[in-house]
Specification:
Blueprint (H helix, E strand, L loop, with lengths): L5 H12 L4 E6 L25 H16 L11 H11 L8 E4 L5 E4 L1 E7 L7 E6 L7 E5 L3 E5 L7 E2 L9 E6 L7 E5 L20 E5 L7 E7 L12 E6 L6 E5 L3 E5 L21 E5 L5 E5 L14 E5 L7 E2 L12 E6 L2 E13 L4 E9 L7 E4 L23 E4 L7 E4 L3 E4 L12 H4 E3 L17 E6 L9 E5 L2 E5 L10 E2 L9 E5 L12 E6 L5 E6 L4 E2 L3 E2 L5 E6 L3 E6 L3 E7 L5 E8 L15 E2 L7 E5 L2 E5 L18 E5 L7 E7 L7 E7 L2 E8 L9 E2 L11 E6 L7 E5 L7 E4 L9 E2 L18
Antiparallel strand pairs: 1-4, 2-3, 5-6, 6-7, 7-8, 9-10, 10-11, 11-12, 13-14, 14-15, 16-17, 17-18, 18-19, 20-21, 21-22, 22-23, 24-25, 25-26, 26-27, 28-29, 29-30, 30-31, 32-33, 33-34, 34-35, 34-36, 37-38, 38-39, 39-40, 41-42, 42-43, 43-44, 45-46, 46-47, 47-48, 49-50, 50-51, 51-52
């Protein structure tokens, strides 16, 4: 959003690289950073102001729907990942050749650029797959839902990416073969991941099959007969939620959402149809677990795709013969309708199983059930409905919420069948299998992760909300060491039985953050490079950190926004960051040029409405006191942000704000805006409509006038989301317009500020005349 060419460049890169943190390019003349200092303050005052997680998920889904959908079909195109990779191979490359650029004074200079992974190195993204080597607990393997597969050989102190960027990066489940421990399998395809799903449930992190490693997780290959080259739920390998391996037979089992339970008896070379349990194209949800003696337990949801007579029986099923036959073990108290269930055995008592079930309900009021099942009762399975004992310590965060089955997990301590962990937003513990309900005085004994058990919106120290996986260290049968995977990456505790469970953040080098946007400070060519980096991430706020490009060192990150971070701007005196729903925070800068925790103020207009989940705003690059903030069809303007009172009011301020109509008309909403550098004080803004051609406007003397001129062009793709502008900092008439949707022309260009309507579609190689000249200085 800043007034230079780099936002365009970063935007194009981020379409494919958001899962891997920040990749920053640096001139070969970069200078060293003497100190990697960071504020110890956690900016915890901001945590109390997050909206409900259910509301955040719904708004995030709506935002991505607008951002990515094909305007003609309203859906993400089929096979889009493979099509993206094929398209990327056609793009021109510089092969690290020297790049000529033009300084702001008009002179030419030359520099070479290298891409380095900058981090953050201690902020992980959403993680569902996690495993510990049964032979060596220092070997830990984990996979992000959009970040690929990573491996640590030193107990999580360091991580290395082990999947190739050209491979599908959506990792959902992981299993080590107990009969051949060098072999590992991971599955792909996230069926319910709100940071990638749209409001119509037509876009997901689609998978393309089962991957196998034969060298203890160092290299991975897609199994050719367990793969799909299609998207959506048209194949059993698109959305696999679980993979388990029998310790007695070596058979590999997968739970495929939409298709059922499948088995491979040939080391993953094939998973024959029909499914062992379920019906293809029917039940939404399936899960499976395997006991140490090879017994299997699986679940199928009543929620389904098909119509007419149901070709399968939903519920809970057990197999004692490697999946050849199944016995219905559904408790009589099991809900008659149910969506996702997760299931597990007690390792030390393989006749004991637990099932956690999301029945349904609104995001604000869920129905979650919990059952104990005894499979060795001498006859039919016995059970207990322990749903009433699920902890509920009140608002705002002290209850079990799966966010409509987004985050669910259940695990049992290897040496104690009554020591049970259940995960939703929070992580809860029971030493009697939730046979009894906790009292409020026992809160700290039960509530051990997610949100802090002080019942506020701060995260539990070292842990993160939204639990997806729980793994006990297999090094010995009574291990108290537990790893957890969640929306913040990975955590580890050395004693899960402690009165107060202490967690360590294990994201050091596990670079799987999911970014919406980033910003870097201006640096003069040939001068010292400013080491500060900041950006907005999914569910991990706005990490601020320092990066030394000479030593490749990254400091610890500090979240300065909370929730879902949005856009960020560095100015001379301030750092601006935003978070979900357009909340903007202005930080004063301390002597180390870092955000001052005590010097923050909420600065967004309190009278604004109709914000996007990730809401745009623009700071004048030559006057840090001027900001523009859209409100559907009007624009708010503040020219005195250097005079506002310091405040901690999350509702924003009225001080200094006024508004003017954006002259849009119809069902349009402003989606992007940008301010010029030379000449200064020119505001470009654009708006989209689901069924109309995007509109573009230019406002000269923007800090004092309110009479914009429309410069829309008919070639703009109808229904597309206008996502960004890139303005040449040396010539405000040169502008690029960015559309983010699939199956539309993405970049358009004008060299006269749209005055004559001469807007060119940019293709590769770049066709616009002026763009054949050396670009202006980056950064």
């Amino acid at each position: 959003m800043k007034n230079r060419l780099s936002p365009l460049f970063l935007f194009l890169c981020f379409l494919s690289l958001t899962a891997f943190g920040l990749f920053i390019y640096f001139s070969s003349e970069s200078t060293s950073l003497n100190n990697l200092e960071n504020e110890a303050n956690t900016f915890s005052a901001l945590k109390d102001e997050e909206p409900s997680r259910e509301k955040m998920n719904a708004m995030r889904a709506e935002y991505f729907y607008r951002l990515l959908r094909d305007p003609k079909t309203g859906a993400i195109p089929q096979n889009i990942r493979s099509r993206e990779l094929n398209h990327a191979r056609t793009l021109p490359t510089r092969n690290n050749n020297p790049l000529q650029f033009r300084r702001k004074d008009g002179t030419l200079a030359t520099a070479t650029y290298d891409w380095l992974s900058a981090g953050p190195v201690d902020v992980g993204g959403r993680t569902r797959a996690l495993g510990i080597d049964k032979r060596d607990s220092d070997i830990v393997i984990a996979g992000g839902v959009s970040g690929g597969m990573w491996k640590s050989t030193d107990g999580g102190d360091n991580w290395q990416l082990r999947t190739d960027p050209s491979q599908n990066q959506s990792v959902t489940s992981l299993a080590q073969d107990p009969t051949n421990p060098d072999n590992w399998y991971y599955t792909s395809g996230e069926f319910r991941g709100q940071s990638a799903a749209d409001r119509g449930n037509t876009s997901f992190h689609w998978g393309n099959g089962v991957y196998k490693s034969t060298d203890d997780g160092d290299n991975w290959q897609l199994l050719p007969n367990a793969s799909s080259n299609q998207d959506f739920l048209v194949d059993k390998f698109n959305t696999i939620s679980r993979v388990v391996i029998s310790p007695t037979s070596g058979s590999i089992f997968i739970a495929s959402n939409g298709f059922g339970i499948y088995r491979s008896e040939d080391d993953g070379n094939s998973f024959p149809s029909p499914p062992l349990l379920g019906a293809e194209g029917e039940q939404f949800w399936a899960d499976i677990a395997v006991a140490p003696d090879g017994r299997l337990i699986a679940t199928l949801s009543t929620q389904r795709f098909g119509d007419g007579p149901r070709p399968y029986t939903p519920g809970v099923f057990v197999s004692d013969d490697d999946g050849n036959s199944w016995t219905n073990a559904t408790p009589s108290t099991f809900p008659s309708t149910h969506e996702r269930s997760v299931v597990t055995f007690a390792p030390s008592a393989p006749d004991t199983a637990y099932v956690l079930t999301y029945v349904g309900g609104t995001a604000e009021e869920e129905d979650v059930r919990f059952h104990f099942i005894d499979l060795n009762s001498g006859g039919s399975p016995e059970f207990e409905d322990r749903s009433a004992n699920i902890p509920d310590f009140g608002e705002p965060t002290g209850y079990m919420s799966t966010q409509q089955n987004y985050n669910m997990e259940v695990a049992v301590k290897p040496d104690d069948p009554d020591f049970v962990l259940i995960g939703g937003i929070n992580l809860f513990r029971s030493t009697d299998g939730f046979k009894t309900a906790p009292s409020n005085s026992e809160k700290e004994q039960y509530w051990i992760g997610g949100y802090d058990n002080d019942n506020n919106l701060s995260h539990y120290p070292g842990q993160h909300a939204d639990q997806h996986n729980i793994v006990f260290d297999p090094s010995n049968s009574n291990s108290n060491i537990v790893w957890s995977a969640h929306d913040g990456g990975l955590s580890r505790t050395s004693d899960i039985t402690a009165g107060t469970v202490e967690w360590d953040n294990m994201d050091r080098g596990y670079v799987t953050s999911q970014y919406y946007s980033v910003d870097i400070p201006d640096s003069e060519p040939g001068g010292d490079h400013d080491p500060r980096l900041i950006g907005g991430t999914q569910d991990n706020g706005s990490p601020f950190f320092l990066f030394n490009s000479e030593t490749n060192q990254t400091s610890e990150a500090t979240d300065v926004s909370s929730g879902d971070g949005g856009y960020a701007f560095f100015t001379t005196s301030y750092i601006y960051v935003s978070r979900q729903e357009g909340s903007i925070i202005q930080y004063q800068i301390n002597d180390n040029q870092q955000p001052q925790p005590s010097g923050f103020a909420f600065v967004h207009p309190s009278g604004a409405e109709n914000q996007y989940f990730i809401h745009p705003y623009a700071v004048d690059p030559l006057n840090e006191a001027i900001m523009y903030y859209p409100d559907e069809r009007q624009i708010w303007r503040n020219t005195r942000l250097d005079e506002i009172d310091r405040n901690n009011n999350p509702d924003g301020i009225s001080q200094g704000w006024d508004s003017f109509q954006a002259a849009l008309g119809g069902y349009y909403s402003i989606s992007a805006l940008e301010v010029s550098t030379h000449p200064s004080d020119i505001l470009y803004y654009g708006a989209f409509s689901n069924g109309g051609t995007p509109k573009i406007y230019r406002l000269n003397n923007a800090s004092s006038t309110s009479d914009p001129r429309e410069i829309s062009f008919p070639e703009a793709p109808s229904g597309a989301f206008l996502h960004d502008f890139a303005i040449n900092p040396a010539n405000a008439d040169e502008v690029m317009v960015i559309f983010s949707n699939y199956n539309v022309a993405s970049i358009f260009y004008t060299d006269d500020g749209g005055k004559t309507g001469k807007i060119l579609k940019v293709t590769w190689p770049v066709q616009a005349k002026r763009m054949q000249d050396p670009p202006f200085e980056p950064g």
